[in-house]
Amino acid sequence: MEKEDFTVKYRDMFPDLRDTVDSDLEKCQLIMLRLLRIFDDICRRHGLSYWLGGGTLLGAARHKGFIPWDDDLDVSMPRADYERFFKIGLAELPEDIFLQHMDTEDRYMYFMRLRDNYSTYREEKNVSGVHNGIRLDIFPFDHYRIPEKLIFPLSKALTAVLLDEFSIGKYNTRKKFKTLRKLRYAAARMPSFFLSARARKKIFASISALVTTEDTKGPFFVGLEGCQRKYRRVDPTDVFPLTEIMFEGYSFMAPRNVPKYLTDLYGDYNEIPDITERMIHSSVISPYESCGHPRSLHWQDKRKEQ
Hints:
The chain is an alpha+beta fold and 306 residues long. It is 42% helix and 16% strand.
């Protein structure tokens, strides 16, 4: 099948339902659910393993769907399946979904995401110059050959020095650093002035290859491109063999031991947090306003076609 055929297939199989609800948060959740259903379909057809992760798995276990205030959706994959999905997704994702990856955007430096082409999703720590549509986050998991205590510091250092040119500035512009801290962060940004994004990504990939291993014994962790955001240690026996869990009325892949997985992450995961502790990731959700990326589409044009 050609990419145009997959666009028609997924338009019919998983129609876009954002017009059927009222609030921007509900629209965002329906858009993310469609991204997840398409992702799930591709994975199942090609025998790729994934599992709902983080707050998405928590929502499935506690609410049978989205946490009511959640505007974020996470899945996790073993590295080998993550790499396979990237290649397959380039060919099979419909035209209204952008596959965001280090290899598809020069300025993008993180883990893979699926982005809705009709919308805008912004955070306070937003990246400029890349696709910022409503998204599905896809985290790779690796086995490492270095001690566990070094993984998180290494990820933070590599991200700051080689990849995170936006976070050193935009994450921290509101913080009042002392002079030494300002100098340290300025020094960390130096490679971004002298090396191209492509060169910095190659260095990052080379270091990542050196510290990870294909040996699947022992725990695995979020890949270096993601663990500075979500550091997670996972015992494969808690994940495999994968099971199924219901989320918004549909069945998706989940870890073998969901209670243990969630308890390790959250403690008493059935406890509803106080309203002051409920995390919202976005600062702006615009379900009908394209983010201005070259691959963006306009909802008005879609309505005219209907």
